[in-house]
Structures are given as structure tokens and as C-alpha cells.
Amino acid sequence: MANILSFFFIFFSLCLQGSSTTTFTFQNKCASTVWPGTIAGAGTSQLSTTGFELQSGSSMSLTAPTEWHGGFWGRTFCANDTITGKFTCATGDCASGNISCDGAGGIPPASLIEIKLNGFQGTDFFDISLVDGFNLPVSITPTGVSSCVSSSCAFDINSICPEILKVKDGNGKVVACMSGCLKFNTDKMCCRGKYDSPQTCKPSSYAKMFKKACPQAYSYAYDDTTSTFTCTGANYVITFCP
Ligand SMILES: *[C@@H]1O[C@H](CO)[C@@H](O)[C@H](O)[C@H]1NC(C)=O
Ligand SMILES: *[C@@H]1O[C@H](CO)[C@@H](O)[C@H](O)[C@H]1NC(C)=O
């Protein structure tokens, strides 16, 4: 009897767990190490880690509670400063001085994955945002649900970044590409003021360049129609350099 009871207890615990958490698996297909950062949106708690190392070829999984929403990005070219000991990254740095971001977001430009679990009528909403720029190719793929499609920005936009938008490391290598909004910070490019509507905010030539390279990613704030993806009941694989 006790065995049967514990069997049902474990069975129902697993069922509950299956329906109430979502697994995010991060995989690094880049040639170099990536240090992913995670950040929870307002009103939801941080995941079990807010920053970790992901060596080339490796993967790692995290679970998120129901209705979690937040963002993921990859930091590149990170090191502990030889003098201060602080952990800093050439791109996507969260300025925590540590490998964990502890609630701080990545400093743009960094390719950003945004997700809201169990939003309207239990649907998950996700996207890749290049609104503030790009640092490395990323994708997000729903798993376990055959009818859902992934969103991917697989092209290395650093390789076609206009000179004025380039972010270079100390050796002159292009490590990230700013958006027009990030670089010029005008109402027109950032869809603010009288440009704060889908009717009045039009993509700049820079936004069009981003869109051509990565058609599934947000290239400017009102790029919703081609950039928002949905799924219900899935887990997700987040890939760097898909
Ligand atoms: C930075 O230091 C931490 C703690 O000592 C260590 O775990 C980590 O691997 C170091 N990171 C790098 C990029 O050297
Ligand atoms: C980094 O993390 C360690 C251990 O969690 C903590 O003691 C330290 O205060 C953190 N440093 C910063 C700059 O937040």
C-alpha cells in the first residue's frame, strides 16, 4: 500500500512539474566560449542562474516557472581583469563585475531573445530583438510541439556592419554592430515622440539592413508583424551561432 501511494505521489508530482515549468536549453555552436546572461522581467523572479559560462560545443539547461518572462543574451570575449579581478566582457557585459548578472541586463549592442511564458490564453510569445543592435547569431527553437516554428538570426551581421555602427575590440576586430537607434538616439530612429506608433515609425536604412540579414528578428521597435512568434506547451532550445 505504501508503495502504491508513493508511486502515485511521484507520478502526480511529475505531472505537475511537467505542466508548470518550462525548460530552456542553451547550446553554444560558436567557435568560442559564450557567457549567456538571463534577466527576469518586472514582477517575476530571476532564474537559478543569471549568468554562466558555455564553452564551444557545450549545452546547459535551466527551468523557468509558469508565467516567467524575461530575456537571454550571449556575452563574448569575457575575462577577469588582471588588476581589479572584475569579470568583464567585450559585448553584452552586464557590469556586475561577476559572471552572474544579478538582475542587470546586457549593455547593448547584443542580440536579445525575449520570451513570455503562458501569456494570452496560455500562449508563449518569443522573439529575437536587434532593436539595440547585434553581437552574435542566435536562434530560439520550441521543442516537443510539432506545430511551432523557431525564430533564427543565423547571419553574422558584424561582417556587413556599416563603419559608423561598428563596435571594435582593442585589435580592431568587429565584435558587435549598433542599431541606428542606439547610435543616433533620435526619436525617428527609436520610434519615440511623434514617431511612437506603427503608422509614424518607419524602418531606417540601417533597420532595413538588419531586416535583410535577419528577416525573423526585430529590426526596429514596430517591426512586430514579422518578428513575433508563439507556441503553447513547449520547451525551448536557445542556440548561439545556429
Ligand atoms: C573568472 O574568475 C572566476 C572565479 O575565479 C572563474 O570561475 C572564471 O572561470 C574566470 N573567468 C574567466 C573568463 O577567466
Ligand atoms: C560576486 O559574487 C561573489 C560570490 O557570489 C560575491 O561575494 C561578490 O560580492 C560579487 N561581486 C560583485 C561585484 O557583485
UniProtKB/TrEMBL annotation:
Gene3D superfamilies: Thaumatin. Residues 1-21 form the signal peptide. SUPFAM superfamilies: Osmotin, thaumatin-like protein. InterPro entries: Osmotin/thaumatin-like_sf (IPR037176), Thaumatin (IPR001938), Thaumatin_CS (IPR017949). Keywords: Disulfide bond, Signal. Disulfide bonds join C30-C241, C78-C89, C94-C101, C148-C231, C153-C214, C161-C177, C181-C190, C191-C201. This is Thaumatin-like protein 1b. It comes from Dioscorea cayennensis subsp. rotundata.
